[in-house]
Amino acid sequence: MSSLLAAAVLGYLLGSIPFGLLLTRLAGLGDIRQIGSGNIGATNVLRTGSKSAAALTLLLDLAKGWAAVIVAKSWGADAALVAAVGVIVGHMYPIWLGFRGGKGAATALGVLLALAWPVALAAALVWLVTALIFRYSSLAALAAAVGSAVLAPLLVDGPTAAVIAGIALLIILRHHANIRRLIAGSESRISLTKG
């Protein structure tokens, strides 16, 4: 039981590191929470005009998801699954930011890479194709989340598939405002013309 608690704490603390906020401040780009959607993730960092800051945010958010699972794997398969959930919850609801964090897509990809890399590759492909066709990051994240939940039972064991489905559900719930904007036709499109 202690290893599961340690995995949960490790995952949450790693997940709650707000790389988007830290990087934009270090780069002199201001408080990312006051820009665009106010989200701390890579898509909103891109709205500052800095592709490099956005790319680094994406990479570090992905890395923390991967690292949480990889470290916890040394404590057992159950610990890895607990850490997977913990790191997503930490990213979405970081204690340091009043529990107002990111949407979890990049961190979830890191988790998938550590838990089931074929699912991660499929999810990344779904994200890329959806983003290129429709130019909505949020729609791409939602499609990737659903795709990973559907594919996981075919490639991994039951508990791992259940955790992947749970993470997908969390991502969908965190995108509730985006879903409303997509339906209303007012969602912001991805722009790669700045910076």
Concise structural overview:
The chain is an all-alpha fold and 195 residues long.
What's the number of structural domains?
1
Percent range for helical residues?
over 70%
Task: Spell the H/E element sequence.
Answer: HHHHHHHHHH
- Could you list the spans in which at least 5 consecutive residues all have pLDDT below 50? none
First-residue to last-residue Cα separation: 48 Å
Radius of gyration, taken over Cα atoms and rounded to an integer in Å? 16 Å
Number of helices: 10
Which descriptor suits the 3D outline? globular
Quick one: biggest sheet?
Answer: none
What would you note in describing this structure?
The protein has 195 residues and is mainly α. It has one domain (2-184). The chain has ten helices and no strands. It is globular, with a radius of gyration of 16 Å. It starts with a helix and ends in an 11-residue tail after the last helix.
Layout of secondary structure:
Elements: H1 2-15, H2 19-26, H3 42-46, H4 51-73, H5 77-92, H6 105-115, H7 117-134, H8 137-155, H9 158-174, H10 176-184
Helix pairs in contact: 1-4, 1-5, 2-4, 4-5, 4-6, 5-6, 5-9, 6-7, 6-9, 7-8, 8-9
What are the defining features of this structure?
mainly alpha; 195 residues; 72% helix
